[in-house]
Write a structure and sequence with these properties.
- The complex is a heterodimer of chains A (about 110) and B (about 850).
- Chain A contains 5 helices and 2 strands, in the order αααββαα.
- By secondary structure, chain A is α+β, with helices and mostly antiparallel strands.
- Chain A has a single domain (about 10-110), classed as Winged helix-like DNA-binding domain superfamily/Winged helix DNA-binding domain (Arc Repressor Mutant, subunit A, Orthogonal Bundle), CATH 1.10.10.
- In chain A, helix 1 crosses helix 3 (about 45-55).
- Chain B has about 850 residues and is an alpha+beta fold.
- Chain B has 5 domains: about 5-60, no CATH class; about 70-120 and about 350-490, no CATH class; about 130-335, no CATH class; about 490-530 and about 725-860, no CATH class; about 535-720, no CATH class.
- In chain B, the strands form 4 sheets. In chain B, strands 1, 2, 3, 4, 5, 6, 7, 8, 9, 10, 11, 12 and 13 form a 13-stranded mixed beta sheet that branches. In chain B, strands 18, 19, 20, 21, 22, 23, 24 and 25 form an 8-stranded mixed beta sheet that branches.
- In chain B, helix 17 packs across helix 24.
- The chains are: A alpha+beta (about 110), B alpha+beta (about 850).
- At the A-B interface, helix 2, helix 3 and strand 2 of A face helix 2 and helix 3 of B.
């Protein structure tokens, strides 16, 4: 079923964008992920993910203000679209569905092992 | 805090324009923060890493838009795509095109390499355009003879008296001697070719000096300069060898010499290969006769000042000669040194062609092969035009201009040519050792600028030759007509296609006829020369063996079938022999005549075919000093009457004259016949073997086996007696073998084309064949139907080719004084050959088509 395609990293980016709400732009998203998930994110990986998400229509972007430290380059703020929200919810539901389907015994056994 | 600009420029270059500002902003923001926290160096490093990681799809811009507004890039892409699809769809004709073109290209490449090498021979001198050699015309019994030997003092006189001559050099080249000498240092012995040079040699010729004083390389008579190669072989280095003493064993010049220089080894494209240099002073000193104006020995080379009138200079040179030697009956003339290789034949004292004939012939053949290969492509493309008519129609309707269609077909032929060229280069690369064996050259593919320029030229010319007709022909279709399916498969198209096939086959037939006739003529000339040349005689050394073993070897040698006679000798046949003064009764005390002393073995005189005027050969197995054979000239000088039985004395020993040999010309033809005598020993270490004519090869092989058994591992190194003649023979032989291969290639390529056409026409008429078969036509009938057309074409080619080839060969033969008669079978044979090969090719396709099941061809529409 390929209704909503959302890769693992893409999902993380989407969630972070949602967390940051109105402040979601490149550097902020990157920092947020790095601090929350304690993992390194390269500029390349993140921007490719953003481009892909925008192509899929899950987020939309608009130019924001510029600052001195950006040497006049505008920030690009992103926001989650309705489609994006659906995709996130869909992913979450599938996950939950999968979690719910795991018999208790299985997880217990795994822990034991 | 400035980030590295170069990195950002790189980023801006590859990044998608919509993203570039935001991402750059992000990068800069991060960079600024990082620089504050961790320092500039770290920030730079991370930025660099980020920029590299950003180089990925999604971020990259579209590079196909590199050629912004022009769409030619896309068009080429499209054309190549269409071409590949088209090849894939018609694999047979693609493979035929590829095979034909690549073998044609490979042949032409080989020819190109060969011709380029021939043209480069002796052109390595920097002053090549001003470097001339003085040639001499001598009146001889057989007419004017042109020789390269000139008077020993000529160069010095010319340099002094003619202002146009900048420098003049006297050279005694290695080929003046009959054999190389041996240079030795400590325990290393090497064969080496000596050359004697006068002082100005280095001003006339380009011969870079690695060690030693260029202005005075050979300061005295005991000085020797050796080539880099020789130095490496002898000393394993070229450094610090100046002043060392070497032994040189050669002719009269045997002795100790000290090295005063090392020069760069002569390039491979020089005909004059020398390993060491000695001074001409020495030559004059040891052979004072060279200073006589009546003798001609060394070669004279002139470096002229700029452009001069050759005719007037010739006159001046002859005036100098007349002034020095009023009795001289010969005339001198100059010829460009590098021209002598290709224009080395002289007719009545004038340069009259030579190798250039073969170079031109082979070049023409190379071009013809390429054209024939291109015709295949043209023919198959036009034949397939009916299929591609619709493609052209649609394209034109959609708005393609004629120009873009022309480009499309040209790019298609360029693609095939490119593939073929790659295959051809591989072929050449693989086959070049065989080619070198045939031609006796050491050619190789070296990727230098001329080679690459040559290949690019080949590529462009072939693509255009092959693609131009289909390109202009196909692009001219009227779209309305082709889309309606009403394309006048015009007579013109058929005529052109058939015309091209006729051209291919006529060329093939002409080539075959020419090759055969050229071969016959060469054979004829060579056998004509046999009358006064010593043929079928080989010589080889077997030194260092005890005489009992030599005797055994000789008797086994005589038992080899095909060996007519085998003699032995010690003294070189064509070189220096050493002189001995004889005494005889009645000799006047002041008479001083040196007699050439020839020490030979039994049967030598017989093997060489030297006839006796009187008497006989010495009896075998007696003391060699007791019997002697003199030549006519010796008897004449001695003034003896009834010489047989009289005694002569030398070294205090007495010998009886047992025979008088007729005069023979042992030494070089330029020398007078000298008095000589034979001392005949039972066995000597050098062998001369007369072999039955016509069976040289197997007999020599047999002798080689025998030799290997007796000589404990030494290579069998034989020579034909007349080495120069042998060389001449080899040249013609090589070219005749080469041209045979090329003639074969043309006929194969022509047949490939025919095969393609036949396959195509059988395919197009497949329904017709099906219906005919259903209505009762026999297989033979269908084969006839399909072959008929092509047979007519090839017969037309025969009709054109036979008279043409007659004209060509007849006019070529007219340039020879002695020539073969043209036989009818040369022409009929070649024509039959071409016709039968063509028919076999076509009928193979026709039979395939005729035997196909009509169900298959008719069931679908």
């Amino acid at each position: 079923m390929k209704k909503y395609q959302l890769g693992e990293f893409e999902e993380i980016v989407m969630l972070t964008v949602a967390i940051l709400y109105k402040e979601a732009y490149g550097v902020a998203i990157k920092k947020e992920i790095e601090t929350r998930l304690k993992r390194k994110v390269s500029m390349g990986a993140m921007h490719t993910a953003l481009v892909r998400l925008e192509d899929k229509g899950y987020i939309k972007s608009h130019d924001g203000e510029t600052t001195a430290e950006r040497m006049g380059r505008p920030k690009k703020y992103v926001q989650i679209t309705a489609l994006g929200k659906k995709a996130m919810e869909y992913t979450r539901e599938t996950r939950n569905g999968l979690w719910g389907a795991i018999p208790k015994v299985a997880l217990d056994l795994m822990v034991v092992r | 805090m400035k980030p590295p600009r170069l990195l950002l420029r790189f980023f801006r270059w590859y990044c998608h324009p919509e993203l570039v500002d935001h991402i750059e902003g992000d990068l800069l923001e991060e960079y600024g923060q990082r620089a504050k926290e961790k320092g500039k160096w770290m920030a730079d490093w991370v930025l660099c890493w980020d920029v590299l990681l950003l180089f990925r799809p999604g971020i990259l811009r579209n590079f196909s838009n590199l050629h912004y507004r022009l769409n030619s890039f896309d068009m080429i892409q499209h054309n190549v795509l269409i071409a590949i699809r088209n090849f894939n769809q018609h694999r047979v004709s693609f493979i035929i095109n590829l095979t034909g073109l690549s073998s044609g290209l490979a042949c032409s490449l080989f020819i190109y390499l060969w011709v380029a090498d021939e043209l480069s021979i002796n052109k390595f001198n920097i002053n090549d355009s001003r470097l001339y050699q003085v040639m001499q015309n001598v009146n001889s019994a057989t007419g004017v003879e042109t020789i390269e030997h000139t008077q020993g003092l000529l160069a010095a006189a010319l340099a002094q008296e003619i202002p146009e001559v900048e420098f003049a050099a006297t050279v005694v080249p290695p080929n003046w001697f009959s054999s190389p000498g041996i240079i030795s240092f400590e325990n290393t012995l090497l064969k080496a070719n000596p050359q004697f040079i006068s002082k100005d040699f280095f001003n006339v010729f380009t011969c870079p000096i690695l060690q030693g004083d260029r202005s005075n390389l050979l300061p005295d008579r005991s000085a020797i300069a050796i080539s880099e190669d020789l130095a490496l072989k002898l000393f394993h280095t070229t450094e610090n060898i100046i002043g060392k003493t070497v032994n040189w064993n050669h002719d009269r010049f045997t002795g100790e010499y000290h090295i005063t220089g090392v020069f760069e080894t002569t390039p491979a494209n020089s005909t004059n290969q020398f390993d060491l240099l000695l001074t001409y002073d020495l030559f004059q000193y040891l052979r004072p006769s060279i200073n006589d104006w009546g003798n001609s020995d060394p070669s004279t080379f002139l470096l002229l000042k700029g452009d001069i009138n050759v005719e007037s200079l010739n006159e001046k040179i002859n005036q100098v000669l007349k002034a020095k030697d009023p009795n001289s009956e010969s005339t001198l003339f100059i010829q460009r040194y590098s021209d002598r290789y290709l224009f080395g034949h002289y007719d009545n004292g004038k340069p009259a062609g030579g190798r250039i004939f073969y170079v031109r012939l082979v070049s023409i053949v190379g071009i013809l092969i390429l054209v024939i290969a291109c015709i295949n492509f043209t023919n198959l493309s036009t034949a397939k035009a009916s299929r591609r008519g619709k493609e052209v129609g649609i394209k034109k309707v959609v708005g393609a201009g004629r120009k873009s269609l022309v480009w499309q077909y040209l790019s298609e032929s360029a693609l095939v040519t490119f593939c073929s060229l790659v295959i051809a280069v591989c072929l050449v690369y693989v086959l070049i050792p065989q080619f070198n064996t045939i031609t006796g050259k050491s050619l190789f593919l070296k990727p230098d600028t001329t080679m690459i320029a040559g290949l690019v030229c080949f590529f462009l010319v072939t693509s255009f030759l092959a693609g131009s007709y289909p390109a202009f022909y196909l692009s001219a279709f009227s779209p309305a007509n082709v889309l309606k399916g009403r394309r006048n498969t015009s007579i013109a198209e058929v005529v052109v296609r058939k015309g091209l096939v006729i051209f291919q086959f006529s060329t093939s037939i002409i080539l075959i006829v020419t090759v055969v006739i050229a071969y016959e003529q060469m054979q004829y000339i060579q056998s004509k020369n046999l009358g006064y040349r010593r043929e079928n005689i080989i010589t080889f050394d077997m030194e260092g063996q005890p005489s009992s073993k030599l005797e055994a070897f000789r008797s086994e040698l005589m038992a080899v079938p095909g060996v007519l006679n085998a003699g032995t000798y010690y003294h070189n046949l064509t070189g220096d022999h050493g002189n001995i003064r004889l005494d005889w009764d009645g000799k006047s005390p002041d008479q001083r005549v040196d007699f050439i002393n020839l020490e030979v073995g039994c049967d030598f005189i017989e093997t060489m075919g030297i006839e006796f005027k009187e008497g006989r050969s010495p009896t075998k197995n007696v003391n060699p000093e007791s019997q002697i054979v003199l030549n006519e000239k010796a008897i004449q000088i001695m003034g003896l009457e009834n010489p047989i039985g009289k005694t002569v004395r030398y070294w205090g020993k007495e010998s009886t004259i047992v025979g008088i040999a007729k005069d023979f010309n042992f030494e070089s033809l330029h020398e007078e016949i000298k008095p000589c005598f034979f001392r005949v020993y039972p066995i000597m270490p050098k062998f001369v073997v007369k072999i039955q004519g016509g069976a040289e090869k197997p007999v020599i092989e047999e002798i080689g086996h025998l030799y290997a058994r007796f000589s404990s591992g030494y290579p069998f190194d034989y020579r034909f007696l007349d080495e120069t003649y042998r060389m001449l023979y080899a040249t013609e032989q090589k070219i005749s073998v080469l041209s045979r291969y090329f003639a074969l290639t043309t006929i194969v390529i022509s047949c490939l084309g025919l095969l393609g056409l036949a396959a195509f026409s059988a395919e197009r008429r497949i329904k017709e064949i099906g219906i005919r078969k259903i209505l009762g036509s026999s297989e033979m009938g269908i084969v006839y139907l399909l072959s008929n057309d092509f047979a007519k074409v090839v017969i037309a080619a025969v009709v054109i080719a036979v008279p043409l080839s007659y004209l060509i060969t007849a006019s070529w033969l007219n340039t020879f004084a002695f020539r073969i008669e043209l036989q009818w079978w040369y022409f009929i044979g070649a024509a039959t050959l071409a016709l039968s090969i063509a028919l076999v090719t076509v009928s193979s396709q026709a039979i395939l088509a005729a035997r196909a099941n009509p169900n298959q061809s008719l069931k679908s529409e």
